[in-house]
Amino acid sequence: MHTLRTRRLFEPGQLVTSRQLVALNEVVTLPDPNRLVHLQFRRFAGCPVCDMHLRSVAKRHEEIVSAGIREVAVFHSAADDLRPFTVELPFAVVADPHKTLYAAFGVEAAPRALLSPQAWLPILRGVMRSLGRIVRGKQPVTSFHPEGGKLGLPADFLIDMDGRVLACKYGEHIYDQWSVDDLLSHARNSR
Fold first, then answer.
1. Sign of the dihedral through C-alpha 121, 123, 125, 131
2. What is the Cα–Cα distance from 81 to 45, expressed in whole angstroms?
């Protein structure tokens, strides 16, 4: 498959550096000594496409936990900006407004995030879903000028208890990430 990516830092089999991630309501140890970690990089607080994807993950969170996986989502927004959009999520959410983790994992931003025709329908669905939630008072209005910009690309990493990357995906547009089925399949295949 042809890719436009220039900074792919990790491949399966490589080790990630141990670190403590300060999530909104907890501290997350990476790697987790007791279970796999699905570290997913999203975009900004209130991103309609990210929100739509994370709600699909939240619906199947018990299934993910039962598979021995800890879910961790990273955003390039400040913690106070994230809280109103993530309060219903049953997993760890990490604020990384300076994109320190993004740089460490080689997660990029690029115009193709929004320009890929494959992203247009998910953008429309996400915006319509967010508008409905805003009208019903279930979420605030998203900033038109989000911290870290609008061109972020998603990325997914499945990391074992020793810090080894079992599988990873660097997205080519804003809706190019693992589904829950993809995640569970990678976890099953790694055992």
1. negative
2. 6
Look at residue 2 and tell me if it is in a domain. no
Sign of CA dihedral 68, 74, 80, 82: negative
Q: Kindly report the pTM of this predicted structure.
A: 0.84
- CATH number of the domain that residue 177 is part of: 3.40.30.10
For the chain, the domain total comes to 1
* Residue 8 belongs to some domain of the structure: no
Q: What is the pLDDT along the chain (191 residues), one digit of tens a residue?
A: 334 445 568 999 999 999 999 999 899 999 999 999 999 999 888 888 888 899 899 999 999 999 999 999 999 999 999 998 898 899 999 999 999 999 999 998 776 666 777 777 776 776 667 667 667 777 666 666 666 667 789 999 999 999 999 999 999 888 899 999 999 999 999 87
- State both tokens at 20: 């403590």
3-state DSSP assignment of residue 80:
helix
Cβ-based neighbour number of residue 169 at 10 Å: 17
